[in-house]
Amino acid sequence: MSGRGGGEAARPSLETVAERAGVSRQTVSNVLNSPQLVRPETIARVRAAIEETGYRPHRAARTLRTRRSHLIAARMHAPVDGINGAVLDSFLHALTSRAEQRDYRVLLYTAEDDAQEIAAYDELLSDFDLDAFVLANTHRNDARTTWLAEHGAPFVTFGRPWGVEASHGWVDVDGAAGVYDATRHLIRRGHRRIAFVGWPEGSGVGDDRRSGWRSACAEENLDVSGLTRSVEDSLATGRAAGAELLNASCAPTAIVCVSDSLALGVWTEITARGLTPGADVAVIGFDDTPTAAVIGMSSVAQPVGDIAEASLDLLTQALDGAPGGSAAAKQLLLPPSLVVRASS
Amino acid sequence: MSGRGGGEAARPSLETVAERAGVSRQTVSNVLNSPQLVRPETIARVRAAIEETGYRPHRAARTLRTRRSHLIAARMHAPVDGINGAVLDSFLHALTSRAEQRDYRVLLYTAEDDAQEIAAYDELLSDFDLDAFVLANTHRNDARTTWLAEHGAPFVTFGRPWGVEASHGWVDVDGAAGVYDATRHLIRRGHRRIAFVGWPEGSGVGDDRRSGWRSACAEENLDVSGLTRSVEDSLATGRAAGAELLNASCAPTAIVCVSDSLALGVWTEITARGLTPGADVAVIGFDDTPTAAVIGMSSVAQPVGDIAEASLDLLTQALDGAPGGSAAAKQLLLPPSLVVRASS
DNA sequence: ATGAAAGCGCTAACAC
DNA sequence: GTGTTAGCGCTTTCAT
Predict the structure, then answer these.
(1) What's the total number of domains in chain A?
(2) Which nucleotide has its C1' atom closest to residue A62's CA?
(3) Do A86 and B64 touch (CB under 8 A)?
(4) What is the pLDDT of residues A199-252, one digit of tens each?
(5) Rounded to whole angstroms, how far apart are CA atoms A226 and A252?
(6) Which of B2, B16, B271 to mutate to test the interface with A (most CBs of A within 10 A)?
């Protein structure tokens, strides 16, 4: 740690610039925030003075006056099994870099459940004048969106509102389509007995993804009886589900999973039996995590950059004022893409 | 996105609290910031008034006055191969949650090289009054620390200053000790030909880790000739290095790697030959990434939480004033720990 | 199109 | 130990 007190030059203020340009402080502010009110030649003079003095507006002062911090809050998720968290990490990176381009910054917070997260909103909103919130992992009965809406705080969610009608802006990935594509891919490769390992019924995301498998199979009149499992998300449960499926009298030749965690569990079971994923039993996961890439497992990838971009579009549209009636869609469903590797 | 304008109650200010408690604004401020100056009974009265009104101080106002934002900047790293980034992610999470406990928040920025990162510091410092910076991945000729020191900005690094004498605060993990432990572990298991796959000479971190392997082998008079490789960090290069080693006339029975990426590359080569990591050839990586955990690969783990904690200790010590002469060490080398799994 | 006055909410400096 | 005064740097009226 280095202490304070290096040789800084005195920080130029609006005043300095105004004097130098021979205008009032106010005019400088207008050049910055409402240039259309200022005559072009004045603008030029002021711009020159800004350049010469190296003036930079001070955020805290602006925030105090306008109640806008130019800060967007995002949650830093705890590394769980470390597998699925990878998607949120790259989403966060995309969000940060794209926010910078729009003159916003991302402020982090942590929380262990919805209640803690709401407490964080409360503090962020009233203490720091946070401009907006980006939520991930929406789920049924999501208290967070309700709270934010009630408090009039702008927000977007990465994930649809599940089980409720909600009018807030959201961006999501079409999980059903992703799993549908994965299943179609397997069908094209000649598979007829394709299993699905998903999460227990009731999770919006999980049910949605499962439906993609079901409809792809239905289209081809494939028999799916006994070919689905519902388990919590982990390697161990995935492996057990895989074992069950492979032990059945009519074992599947391909297994699609709702997540990479489960898929890796299945993968582990396959290799433990001396079989080769892809050659003997095909496996496809969901999220295209680094681990999947490393071991060569096919997986459905979410377009993280596009999600971040779209989220910010929605946000800045609301924050910086949508010109006109703001007819733009406030809900967006993006298509994922299947990354085919050796395992399928 | 939900718009602004929900039914907020009017925000209570210091004034409100002061009136209610029958004191001046200043006294309320003192209760909050310098309670030792206020008589206990006054404190109690003010605290009660704060409670009743639900008053919360406004950061922007305080920042404007004190030039302290209570914000700490950290870089959001781009997901590279997705393997090694995992350590920084959990470090960032630990940093965020621990900073919250000390009434600091973490603000993100992105950068693609040192120059961009310095530009970010500049903006963050003068526009947002950032209080401090946390840097990771220190390297030789690190322009960032020089810049920060010159500008008098408080900072800590996760990583030693390599190749220079520097007096700034840092926290690092003893990589040499980690690799030494890993090698010792292999020796205890009976291995006599232990190879090391590292990075090209010149990277401080890489050379340091390699030295741990060298000294453990030297202690036991093990022959290490032809048993080390220096390659860039990736799966492919790791795999190639592994192949070379295994093809040699006197192939090693165990391979220690400077990173999990390289170790996974070696792992891939081993399994591709129909061999089993651990049973046939032992492999140990570095960083204990999620992928390592998933596939059951031994790896050296960095104590991320402790690093975050220590970094903040150093920072807050400098920011909030170290009482007394601040005799506490400003440099800290933490021991990593070997996580033994099936691969060794 | 530009300028003057006022004030956002807080704390440092000083008086009492 | 507590109150008073002033001002951080900016933008929002409103007057010109």
Answers:
(1) 1
(2) D10
(3) no
(4) 999 989 999 999 999 999 999 999 999 999 999 998 889 999 999 999 999 999
(5) 10
(6) B2
